[in-house]
Amino acid sequence: MRNSTKLIILAGIAIVCILLYGFYDIKGGFDYAFPRRMIRVSAMVVTGIAIAYSTVVFQTITRNRILTPSVMGLDSMYEVVQTLIYFFAGSMSVWVLNKYLNFGAAIFAMVLFALLLYRFLFRADKHPIYLLLLIGMIIGTLLGSLVTFLQVLIDPVEYLSLQNRLFASFTNVKAELLYIAIGILFLAFLYGYRIMGKLDVMSLGRENAINLGINYDRMVMKILVLSSVLIATSTALVGPITFFGLIVANLSYQFLATYKHSTLIFGASLMGIIALVGGQFLVEHIFELRTTLSVIINFIGGIYFIYLLLKESRAAG
After folding, report:
1. What's the CA gap between 218 and 18, in Å, rounded?
2. Is 29 exposed, middle or buried (0-12, 13-18, 19+ CB in 10 A)?
3. Mind listing the pLDDT tens digit for each residue in 124-176?
4. Which DSSP symbol is given to 291?
5. What is the rounded radius of gyration, in angstroms, for the C-alpha atoms of the chain?
6. Environment class of residue 176 by beta-carbon count within 10 Å: exposed (0-12), middle (13-18) or buried (19+)?
7. DSSP helix, strand, coil percent of the chain (3-state; round to 5)
8. Tens-place pLDDT, residues 75-94
9. Rounded to an integer, what distance in angstroms lies between the CA atom of residue 102 and that of residue 316?
10. Torsions phi, psi of 8, nearest 5?
11. What is the pLDDT of residue 130?
12. Contact between 158 and 90 (Cβ < 8 Å)
């Protein structure tokens, strides 16, 4: 089966999931319920595409299909920002009540963290990129320990309010923030489209890419920043989803079996939309909101991550 046919099938399934979520069992006024469902669907589509895109390009430059941008500690940085706000300012502060300030602070802190990490640690001519990834993992662990320590000291009522922000949720997405996220991601995708051909070349490896005229080190830095912006925006919009990028990216590799990033990213994005919209439909109508989508994704993603580790281990053996 051609990849174009596979993409059409994925697109059809994604459209069915969107229509099913948008129109199934609308109770009350249609004019009230339908627009709110479409806001949630739009948030899922934006999040699915952003995470899929950032994960695929990130794995291209690291040449490892197990690593994701979350390894760099970006999810942990989001948790640190929210915990610090609640710890020092409280749930009734302007940094919590004003959605624009909270959204902007989260994106600014996460992107700044990534830029500083790349600026001071990443030197392609001195240190391999795996040193950057290792340090990112260590920093992410330290940030997670800091979050846990502050959460132990925080007021219990404040802690319950904080927990709502530390798990991905599509039920309370603000339309104003969604429009801002769409604008940021549109600019990022516009730049990403221009370098799509270079990504195909970079997947051949550093030496081959340089021989074919690619400024490899400069492109790696640009892609790392682009990936950070995408992850930061989606995380600030709906919250962290740790293993989601790992799942959709690897499924895209296996299902499409191509080196072309335009096909891989499109396929991973469609799978992301299907997983989020279809999964949220199951959470709301089958599980009746007794659990959250992020819990299901992290559970499945954790199992899939272990499977990939065992697979890589057998291949190396």
Report:
1. 39
2. exposed
3. 445 565 666 677 778 878 888 888 888 888 888 888 888 877 777 777 788 88
4. S
5. 20
6. exposed
7. 80, 0, 20
8. 788 888 888 888 888 888 88
9. 45
10. -65, -40
11. 64
12. yes
Tokens of 138: 């260590």
What is residue 140's three-state secondary structure? helix
Instruction: Give the whole-angstrom CA distance, residue 70 versus residue 232.
Output: 10
Of the candidates 248, 244, 212, 214, the residue with the CA atom closest to the CA atom of residue 231: 244
3-state SS class at 37: helix
Residue corresponding to tokens 């300030």: 101
Closest-CA residue to 168 (of 237, 228, 108, 104):
237
The structure tokens listed for 110 are 């996460």
Angstrom distance (rounded) from CA 285 to CA 124: 50
CB 203 within 8 A of CB 104: no
Q: Which DSSP helix (H) or strand (E) runs through 222? A: helix 216-238
Q: Kindly state the greatest CA–CA separation across the chain.
A: 63
- Helix ranges (H only) for the chain are 3-23, 30-62, 74-88, 94-97, 99-121, 129-153, 156-166, 175-194, 196-202, 206-211, 216-238, 244-256, 261-285, 293-316
Strand, helix or coil at 233? helix
d(CA 100, CA 138) in angstroms, rounded, equals 31
Q: Per this entry, what is the length of the chain?
A: 317
- The average confidence (pLDDT) of the chain is 83
Structure tokens at 250: 């690897």
Homologous superfamily of 3-311: ABC transporter involved in vitamin B12 uptake, BtuC (1.10.3470.10)
Under 8 Å between Cβ of 34 and 53 = no
pTM: 0.86
- pLDDT over 90 percentage in the chain: 14
| Six token digits for residue 81 | 């920002």
Contacts of 41 (CB under 8 A, 6+ apart): 18, 21, 22, 277
End-to-end CA distance of the chain: 32
CB 74 within 8 A of CB 108: no
